[in-house]
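hey can u run this one w/ NDP bound, need the structure tokens asap thx
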Amino acid sequence: MEMVEESSSVTDRYAVIGNPISHTKSPQIHRAFAAATGQDIEYIALEAPVGGFAAMVDELRQAGTLGLNVTLPFKVDAFAYAGVVQQRARLAGAVNALKFVDGSVIGDNFDGLGLVRDIAGNLRHALRDRRVLLLGTGGATRGALLPFLEEGPARLAVAGRKHAAVAALAREVAPDGGIAALDYGMLAGQGPFDVVVNATSASLRDELPPIGHDCFAPGCLAYELAYGKGLTPFLRLARDAGAGRVADGVGMLVEQAAEAFAWWRGIRPATEPVIRQLTVPLI
Ligand code: NDP
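ok here u go:
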């Protein structure tokens, strides 16, 4: 009897979940990575109803999906959903990538790592022995503090609107006091800094966090986490104050995606061509 061999090649499935999701660039990024590395994957964008994250992920797992990126507002739901959570995600209190392996659910958070890779790698602005200031105490800052500390800055400071919240966060990540906790009123006289990162969501509303020119050391890097918004009020202030380089978060977005892709597929894609494709000039 002739045996007919069935094709075992089934395209591996991944997705990004958020709400809203129409703005996402993740499918474009992951498809570009897959094409460049010869990986046969399908990657789609899905909108889950608020409160419906776990039910949607249950369904996707049953249908054989192998991994997910998670964006607003579900990063905390993803943290709760994961059975195993990597340390940086635990400190962030948020998961932005899930991997499903042999019935278990592993969660990680690559946002902070992506930010550090963009600053230290792509922008060639080493963080070691530099004075670094992060603005904001939200999820993005929570995820970035540990990767920043690991780079060995001379000083790492976080500023936020509520001092008690900043102090609690700084203590949680660095119980030895390695992170200076400031509110905006305390910032005067603390600078200047070599790297100033706006990890607040102020730019999404065209607002400026309450900081002055004295934060920015001559020639410093000013980094805006929001992307695709051109010169935000923060980046404009930084330029006026003499920053040597201003950048938005598009490189961070692509770098965190590359981390997730490598985690899922075991192969690291080149990020530079994708960053170039997505970059909008800062004017
Ligand atoms: P969160 O909502 O978790 O936190 C927002 C933070 O911004 C809070 O600390 C809030 O302060 C502060 N804030 C908001 N408005 C102002 C203001 N006018 N002045 C001072 N502080 C303000 O957001 P995330 O941390 O998740 O995201 C922050 C930014 O990073 C967003 O712009 C987001 O789009 C971007 N991002 C970019 C990524 C990328 O890949 N490039 C990835 C993740 C995020 P308070 O607590 O006092 O209200």
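The radius of gyration is 20 Å. anyway lmk if its weird
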